[in-house]
Amino acid sequence: RKEVEQDPGPFNVPEGATVAFNCTYSNSASQSFFWYRQDCRKEPKLLMSVYSSGNEDGRFTAQLNRASQYISLLIRDSKLSDSATYLCVVRRGGSARQLTFGSGTQLTVLP
Amino acid sequence: EPEVTQTPSHQVTQMGQEVILRCVPISNHLYFYWYRQILGQKVEFLVSFYNNEISEKSEIFDDQFSVERPDGSNFTLKIRSTKLEDSAMYFCASRAGGDTGELFFGEGSRLTVL
Question: Each residue of B14-51: b (16+ CB within 10 Å) or e?
Fold first, then answer.
């Protein structure tokens, strides 16, 4: 089983739509959770951290369910500029705290 | 805004040649990483480096790979004898430390092995 699994998509949605991405992780020792955004042939950039209580940043809402080992990202009122690949990322404990990336979910927002 | 810089942006090499990819992490950061992404695939961890030594490495990071921080600012990844399957985008990243330190990525070095 992959350590981090995501639906690869692609998701093609009209501007203004609400879209949700899901992710599951297999290692119960995972401690921190993130959504990264990656534009085509660019580096990953942190979109937001994900907390157990759920957190919101503008049009973006992230949720974490530790019992189910499940992470979600909701994008409301999607913009053309939201088109990118969204990467679910987990971090285990330990001194290095290296990140494990999911394969990403591709989103295209259509005019 | 401080940033991680990488050189070269693109390198083409012949199979069997040695390649050195260079990175300048953010100046006050303590942890340094190399990740790679084969075209169309996920970002994969290679190695982490702290206090002038490797702290963790993946199974991808075999004897052909090495890392070095030769002068306190540069952080290099060397591939001793490149193979076709080493063709990928290589991302350097750094973070300041602490439990919640964000990982900052460089723009990547694209390696093409012919």
Answer: eeeeebebbbbbbeebebbbbbbbeeeebbbbbbbbbe
